[in-house]
Known about the structure:
This protein is α/β, with parallel strands linked by helices. The protein has a single domain (2-222), classed as LmbE-like (Rossmann fold). It is built from 7 helices and 7 strands; from the N terminus they run βαβαβαβαββαααβ. A 7-stranded mixed sheet has the order 3-2-1-4-5-7-6, with helices on both faces. The protein is globular, with a radius of gyration of 17 Å. Bound molecules: zinc ion.
Amino acid sequence: MNILAFGSHPDDVEFLCGGTLLKYRKKGHSIFIALTTSGNIGSNVINGRDVIAKTREEEQLQAAKFYDAQVRFLRYNDEGLVDSEQLRRDIINAIRWASPDVIFTNPPCDLSTDHNVTGTVVGRVMLSLVGKNIPADEPPMKRFPSLFYWDTSAGVNFVPEVYVDITEEYDQKVKALLCHKSQISWMSEYEDQSFVDSCRIMSEFRGLQAGYTYAEAFSAFRLHGVMPDFSLLP
Length: 234
Ligand SMILES: [Zn+2]
């Protein structure tokens, strides 16, 4: 299968879905990552939005090696994402590029602005993926993928429907997360927990709910004709 993780910023994928991607990769599936923004305001330490974006894209490419993933950057401005015809077209193109059986993305209940818009628009374009008259550059898909939402950043407002046991993959998940060096150093200046500690707390909390040591939690997108297939989860 082809698996697409559609994030809003470099680090979303590793933090909220990395263990699940590692599990898919171990089973021989192909992994794709798309990001709506390159997190170009995500540092008060590095000067210049272009430099921040370049740094964070390089970090994302390093992390992607853990799943042998291909990566596509849409390069919208960080914290500036709004639903638009162009964003929909770019997201449709990115999904068709990956031709996924399963998509993971930010949940619309995440009120962090880019997370909210990315997750909302990925859902809104689902019916367009197979339409041959939709304005897009990539050819239409033959069938609908299953769409699952990963957790919010600290689990706020998120009600999980299904859990993936990532106990065996947890150490590798942390190693992939540690590729995001610029984000980790900046966040340590304004958050009490380190990014790695936040990751452990989230993974243990979802694991506690599901009866595993570490877990990632997901909910499913549902629309008439585009229902999720839970059997595709690893
Ligand atoms: Zn994010």
